[in-house]
Specification:
By secondary structure, the protein is of the alpha+beta class. The protein has helices at residues 2-16, 22-29, 43-46, 117-122; strands at 51-53, 59-68, 74-81, 90-95, 100-104, 107-111. Strands 4-3-2-1-6-5 form a six-stranded mixed β-sheet. A hairpin with a 2-residue loop joins strand 5 (100-104) and strand 6. The chain is elongated, with a radius of gyration of 24 Å. The protein starts with a helix and ends in a 6-residue tail after the last helix.
Length: 128
């Protein structure tokens, strides 16, 4: 029995080590990404947590999350505004079209041109 079990295990190991067919390799290539492209960035590294400034350069909030629709398109950004050290902070959401994104020295700058602290204070709270 041990010999038979050992033979089956060896056959499975040998089959697993066979080269992948061209068809399987092509299929895997359409599923997996091996590296990010120079034109891509990871949201967690550059956008989540980024300070949002108004057109005067004042910090008015920070990006906390993104809203994605059922077509996998980013439609909005959830921001934390107001408060101090997270106390009294309000969550609002803005359309991505209202934001301007600029990269300077590898750092993401997020600008919400029309934002004033009063306008954001009066903005409706975002509900999940």
């Amino acid at each position: 029995m041990k010999t038979k079990l050992l033979s089956v295990a060896f056959a499975a190991l040998a089959a697993a080590s066979l080269p992948v067919s061209a068809e399987e390799a092509a299929k895997a290539g359409s599923i997996f990404i091996t590296a990010q492209k120079p034109t891509e960035y990871l949201v967690k590294d550059r956008l989540i947590g980024a300070k949002v400034k108004n057109s005067s350069g004042e910090i008015v909030g920070d990006i906390e999350d993104l809203i994605v629709d059922n077509s996998d398109h980013v439609t909005g950004a959830v921001m934390g505004v107001g408060g101090f050290l997270g106390i009294g902070e309000k969550k609002i959401a803005v359309n991505t079209s209202a934001l301007q994104l600029e990269v300077t020295d590898g750092k993401m700058n997020v600008i919400l041109p029309a934002a004033t602290k009063d306008a954001l204070k009066g903005a409706p709270a975002f509900e999940r």
